[in-house]
Amino acid sequence: MAPKSSAPTQQTTAIQTLWKAYNEQTSDRLKFIDAFLFFLMLSGIVQFLYCILVTNFPFNAFLAGFSSTVGQFVLTASLRSQVNPENKNEFKEVSPERAFADFALGSIVLHFFVYNFLG
Amino acid sequence: MFSLIHLLLLAVSAQASLLTLQSPRFSVSDPTGTQIRSEPVSLVQKSSTPVNLTANNVLKLTFQVVDKETGKGVQPHQTFLRFYDEQSGEEGIQPVRVTPGGKAKFELNLARPPLSLPPTTDAPLKVSLIIGSSQYSPLSAELFDLILPLSHPAPVHPDEASFHVLPEIKHTFRPEQKLPPRVISAFFAGLVVAPWAVLLGLWSQISPRAPHLFSPSILPFVLSLGAFEGLLFWYWVDLKLGQVLLYGTILGVFTIFTGKQALASIGNRRLNRK
Which end of chain A is more exposed for a tag (fewer CB within 10 A), N or C? Predict the structure, then answer.
């Protein structure tokens, strides 16, 4: 790993190395899930900014939307960590299919509660 | 049967004995003892002039209750003096003690008035005598009118002040919350939708393969998941809670089967390849 440096002569910084390694070493499926995670994060941040900057008037709507992004992020992150082949030793008793089934069930329950609260 | 009893009672009362008063008399005297007014009382006709009592006067009423035919003294079961105010409708009942021989004496001393006197109004009190007995037919006679001095106002209860209507509560409410102006709303709506564009762009770049997505073992599962999402959206728009739970349970049972099938096939494929 290249040491962290800010000298202009070094072409690569640690972040660039990290990004390069990520791009090369992560499978497409995991990248697919990561894109979804990134999307969820952006969505949650934008909603939160709106609530702070403009108004929290339909407060239940804000809570429903924000918690939907946060909850979905948690579920997807756990799916990603359980499905990753490199983590197989951590999750011996949970097969990737079981992880996906849990993810699906959790998502549906989350969506139900969010729709309930959305009003 | 009922009317027969009525007839019997009527017959009995027609035969019942009558009571009368012997030498009924009332007198008004002042504290020193001198008599201001003294008259006999008639049962048939009310006394024409009302009795005027001023403070400290004493009204005495004496009579003897006798059987009309035999003239013997009778002690009736109930002997009352009724003070009735026509204007206010109040009445006071004062029992009169009668000796076994039938003699009765009633004294009204305004220095210590009986509690049963109603408060004084402009109209005079009608005083009547009511006698009840089980062996004789009842007797009720108006004796005279009574004019009393003004009564004191009723004493105020110490807790009186707390038994009145409290002032009406005027609630103040927070002003209604308003939506922000449409421009800002539209701008932020666009901003919130923007991450979807980011997601679609990223996904198009990555585009992982799903080779067996539409195979018959997996497709039903995907479709039932999609159906769940559709059901929830329908619930948001239209359905009630009970309905969505019912449909969700049915769909859930279906999804369990398709899911088992789909995930088992994927797992087998993964393990076989490994």
Answer: N
**Judgement on whether residues B85 and B195 belong to the same structural domain of the protein:** no
B224 and B135 within one domain = no
Compute CA distances B12 → B3, B57, B134, whole Å. Answer: 14, 45, 12
| DSSP line for B162-180 | GGSPPPPP----PPPP-PP
Between the CA atoms of A63, A68, A71 and A77, what dihedral angle is there, to the nearest 10 degrees? -140
pLDDT tens digit string along A2-35?
Answer: 444 455 445 678 999 999 888 888 888 888 889 9
Note the pLDDT tens digit of each residue in B72-117.
888 889 999 898 988 888 888 989 889 988 888 888 887 777 888 8
Domain containing residue B258: 182-273
Interface test with A, best of B193, B228, B240, B249 (most A CBs within 10 A): B228
Picking from B177, B178, B199, the nearest residue to A39 by CB comes out as B199
Q: With an 8 Å Cβ cutoff, are B235 and A115 in contact?
A: yes
Pick from B104, B135, B150: which residue ends a domain?
Answer: B150
Which ipTM was obtained for this model? Answer: 0.79
Q: How many domains does chain B have?
A: 2
